[in-house]
Each structure stands twice: as structure tokens, then as C-alpha cells.
Request: fold
Amino acid sequence: MLDFGIVAKEETEDYNTKFLSELIQGEEITGEIVVGEFKTIPMGKREVAEFYVIITDHENRLKWVCEFTTPYHPETNNIYGEKGGLFYNFIDSITHVVNDTPINWQDNYSVNFNQFRKTLNQYIRSVTIKTVAPVNTDAKTVNLEIIGAEYKTESRKKVPLTIYDLAEEDPIILMGYASLRNKGDRITVKNIVFELKSLLDDEKITEDAYKLALIELKTVKEK
Reply:
């Protein structure tokens, strides 16, 4: 018999499934995470994005199905998280766990959905997530907070990268890298930071982009 790569379907119909509206404060789950595609739905004079995040604990046969509804900007394909809201708490906490950013790192989050979904589905194997009290007393559901993550492959957080590797992936770091090459200067983390600070002072990059680039550059191990 030839192997055509067919993967056996795992039966999950008998899992204990909880929807976001059924969760109460203090619950916790560790399991595989999958972000589904989003659809837009009309809300008044604008559209909002609706998508699901599913966390599945195969060992205990438990599944959480969490629906997110966020403002959507079709011109950029970005979704929006307002401070204190469900999506804000989710993206802020997973960014903190994975990238070591501070809690409440930004006042609000504008997130490219395609990149958000790709990164979670491609690189994160499982998460530990707990339910916390919503900031908004009128909220109908609890908030979700990521407190741990397991990677599918060795992450950039664990694998030392070269400056060139980062420049290939990050357009902001690439700007500093290219500037040094054009001037014939030595390419080091210190020199790239100096170049990026100059770009920030000249208002060619934003402060958030500058701060994120500094975090990425900390992963580089120079000889």
C-alpha cells in the first residue's frame, strides 16, 4: 500500500465543549490553539470582523470555542483591540508571553489579521489560557489571558539569529541594515540601533516600530 500522506481524523465530537459565553472567571485550559478565518458582518454604518479561536485539550477531551468581534479596517486588513477589551487582553498577553513585551504595552492594538493568524497557527503549538474578570462591567463574557505558550518549532526567542536574518524578516531593521551597508559602516546591533534612532528622530518610523525592533535585536548573539 502506498502512503499518500492521509492523516487519520481525530474524533472530537465527544469533547466537553465550552463557548466563551459559558466560561466563568478562574477557569484555565492548556491545549492546541487554532485561529480560524474571519468574516465581516455589517454593524451600523461600518463592518466588523468576526473570527474564532479554538483551544483543544486532547488529554482531558476539553475544548474552548472563543468568538471575537472586533472593528475592522478593510483598507489595511487590520483588526482593532481597544484597551480593556477581549481582543486587547488576548493579544497583549500573548505578545507578553512570546516577545517579553510589558503588560499593557500599547494603549490600543491595530493588528494585521493575516499575520496574526499565520503566526499563531504556524509557530504556536499550544497555550495555557485563563479567564479573568472583564474591565468593562457591562461586558457579557470574561476576558482571556495567555499565561504560557509552547512552540511548534524552535522560535526566534530560543534560537540565536544573525542581524541579516532579522533584516530579511523585519522591514524596519532592514532600513537600518541597508543604511549601514550604503555608508560602508560596520553592521552591528549597536550601529543599527543608532541608525533606527536617527530614523525615529526624523519621523521616518514610528515609536512603536522602533521599540519592537529593539526587542527583536535583543535576540541576536554577536560574536
The longest helix spans residues 86-99. The chain is about 30% helix and 30% strand. The first strand starts at residue 16 and ends at 19.
